Amino acid sequence: MSSVKIVYWSGTGNTESMANAVADGVRNAGGTAEVLPVSAVSAADLAADKAFALGCPSMGAEQLEEGEMEPFMAELESSIAGKQIGLFGSYGWGNCEWMRDWEDRCSSAGATVVNGEGVTFLGEPDADTISALNDLGAALCGLA
Ligand SMILES: Cc1cc2nc3c(=O)[nH]c(=O)nc-3n(C[C@H](O)[C@H](O)[C@H](O)COP(=O)(O)O)c2cc1C
After folding, report:
1. How many Cβ atoms are within 10 Å of 30's Cβ, its own excluded?
2. Among positive and negative, which fits the CA dihedral 134, 140, 142, 144?
3. pLDDT attached to residue 1
4. For residues 82 and 80, what is the distance between their CA atoms, to the nearest angstrom?
5. Rounded distance from Cα 30 to ligand 1 centre (Å)
6. Which parts of the chain have pLDDT scores under 70?
7. What is the structure's pLDDT at 115?
8. pLDDT at 64 (0 to 100)
């Protein structure tokens, strides 16, 4: 059975809701999902995984959250070549530059961003976004 890890950081719960929607999609597709706060994971934990999801809201000035997610991503970058990564996150007012940068970073490191781009939404995810995240989970289940 496919097993998919969903690693996220969330300050006020919006990106956490998105992580849970990805997990629902994995489970509905018949896989097992682990929803893990980034504080509980190291890059080595993903070394054997072909496909996984990463979630983080836009923080700083269009950046990944700097205390936990940015150091995690910096550590992960050297070991994601060939992997399939689903990206997602909530934002508040910007133009999703943080997600475009994150996609580029994954691609430059040799990974494939599933569906070519991350799933983003302003604030709390709506029904269409939850549905897109369910689909992302199902896709990751098929790739894991
Ligand atoms: C310190 C801080 C910096 C932020 N910087 C940005 C930003 O640069 N661009 C943006 O669109 N939203 C920004 N936001 C808004 C968050 O991305 C938004 O509130 C998001 O929904 C939070 O997701 P969460 O509930 O998963 O923590 C910022 C929020 C905080 C608290």
Report:
1. 11
2. negative
3. 72
4. 6
5. 33
6. none
7. 97
8. 98
CA–CA gap between residue 135 and residue 21 (Å, rounded) = 9
C-alpha–C-alpha distance, residues 45 and 75, integer Å: 11
Max CA pair span of the chain: 40
Domains of the chain listed by start with CATH number: 3-143 (3.40.50.360)
Please tell me the residue having the least CA distance from ligand 1 atom 12.
Answer: 92
Check if 94 has its Cβ closer than 6 Å to any atom of ligand 1: yes
Distance in Å, CA 63 to ligand 1 centroid: 9
Give DSSP secondary structure letters for the chain: --EEEEEE--SSSHHHHHHHHHHHHHHHTT-EEEEEEGGG--GGGGTT-SEEEEE---BTTTB--TTTHHHHHHHHGGG-TT-EEEEEEEESSS-SHHHHHHHHHHHHTT-EEGGGS-EEEESS--HHHHHHHHHHHHHHHHH-
Q: How far is CA 88 from CA 1, 11, 36, 78, in A?
A: 24, 14, 14, 21
The amino acid that residue 61 corresponds to is A
